[in-house]
Write a structure and sequence with these properties.
- By secondary structure, this protein is α+β, with helices and mostly antiparallel strands.
- The protein folds into 2 domains: 6-190 and 273-312, Double-stranded beta-helix, CATH 3.60.130; 193-268, no CATH class.
- The chain contains 7 helices and 16 strands.
- The chain has helices at residues 13-27, 38-52, 55-67, 97-109, 192-195, 201-207, 253-268; strands spanning 6-10, 71-75, 114-115, 126-129, 148-151, 173-180, 186-191, 212-215, 225-229, 232-235, 238-241, 248-250, 272-275, 281-285, 289-293, 306-312.
- The strands form 4 sheets. Strands 1, 2, 3, 4, 6, 14 and 16 form a 7-stranded mixed sheet that branches. A 4-stranded antiparallel sheet has the order 5-15-7-13. Strands 9-8-12 form a 3-stranded antiparallel sheet.
- A hairpin with a 2-residue loop joins strand 10 (232-235) and strand 11.
- Helix 2 crosses helix 4 (97-109) and helix 6 (201-207) packs across helix 7.
- The longest helix has 16 residues, at 253-268.
- It binds fe (ii) ion.
């Protein structure tokens, strides 16, 4: 059974070039930084995207959060002449203004709100997902040499309610924009609905009970823990999941055995491998999708894999 629903759309070269020209011109008039000029970048991007994207693509974006789809990929967006990969994690944002306008414009068309949190990524809105030598041996979006097991991002936070401050909850959606990926490393995704049938009823009941302590991932500055919480929860439209193998602790032996069964199920879960290259955008539902990245050998630093990640709820 494969319940994972992913929309994959590809722009033609003519549309890409129109977007590139208009957005490139409009962002070049001033220095635009996503942390101070997020609304202006989104405004520029969304305007051009609304004007040039084919109707079916616009419709897919505007309805995505209501369709129950797990993920959406939009390929062949503008890809600039990019600077070397900032493997330390941070680089100049101004040269990426066009890419930032496209990513933030897409987030606006999706009808969701981008946000940063002050305890992660230096409080910056957009994270450079790069193989950072200082993260060697850690399971982090800055890692490369360690496998990153199936997880949801920031599972130590509660699920959010519509209309609430997104910074207080798990990010509902993760968005990525590909800058370069010569190593062709996939981002793998799996639907929680595909993992559920791989464990028995009794195990599911334990996973739905507050029998776990779930900590913050390595990318967080603070060591926050969500105590006495669940791995699986019931949302208005189905099951929600919070999980990170590295930070989830069972509170008793019954919970520990259910956790082992869950980890075993995830090893067998149907998955989709998405290789994001230059100009490829991905969004997925962090409440219903688990994701992971296998270990890989990065290209030389200047051309190493580089994705741009922005949370949105
Ligand atoms: Fe992640």
């Amino acid at each position: 059974m494969n319940l994972l629903r992913v929309a994959v759309l590809t722009l033609d070269g003519g549309t890409r070039d129109l977007l590139d020209k208009e957005i490139g011109e409009r962002v070049s008039a001033s220095a635009l930084d996503p942390d101070t000029d997020e609304a202006i970048l989104a405004h520029i991007g969304a305007h051009a995207l609304s004007r040039y994207l084919p109707g079916e693509v616009l419709h897919a974006l505007q309805t995505f959060t209501h369709t129950g789809r797990h993920a959406l990929v939009l390929r062949n967006l503008p890809a600039g002449d990019y600077p070397p990969t900032p493997v330390t994690g941070f680089g100049q944002e101004t040269p990426l203004a066009e890419t930032n306008a496209v990513q933030l414009g897409l987030i606006q068309l999706l009808g969701i709100t981008p946000f940063a949190v002050d305890y992660e990524n230096g409080g910056r809105l957009i994270r450079n997902v790069v193989p950072n030598p200082s993260a060697a041996g850690t399971t982090s979006s800055w890692g490369a040499d360690s496998e990153f097991f199936w997880h949801t991002d920031n599972p130590h936070l509660p699920f959010g309610e519509p209309g609430s401050d997104p910074r207080l909850s798990m990010p509902r959606y993760l968005t990525f924009y590909g800058i370069r990926n010569e190593e062709a490393v996939p981002t793998e995704i799996a639907a929680v609905e595909d993992a559920l049938p791989l464990v028995d009823d009794a195990t599911r009941r334990v996973l739905r009970s507050p029998a776990y302590d779930i900590g913050a991932p390595a990318s967080n500055d603070a060591e926050a823990v969500y105590g006495n919480t669940v791995i699986l929860d019931q949302g208005p439209d189905g099951t929600l999941v919070r999980f990170d193998r590295g930070t989830t602790r069972a509170r008793d032996a019954v919970a520990a055995s259910a956790l082992q069964a869950w980890i075993g199920a995830l090893a067998r879960v149907p998955r989709r491998e998405l290789v994001l290259g230059a100009g490829d955008f991905l969004i997925f539902d962090n409440y219903r999708v688990l994701h992971r990245r296998s270990r890989f050998t990065p290209a030389p630093a200047a051309t190493a894999r580089w994705l741009r990640r922005c949370y949105a709820s």
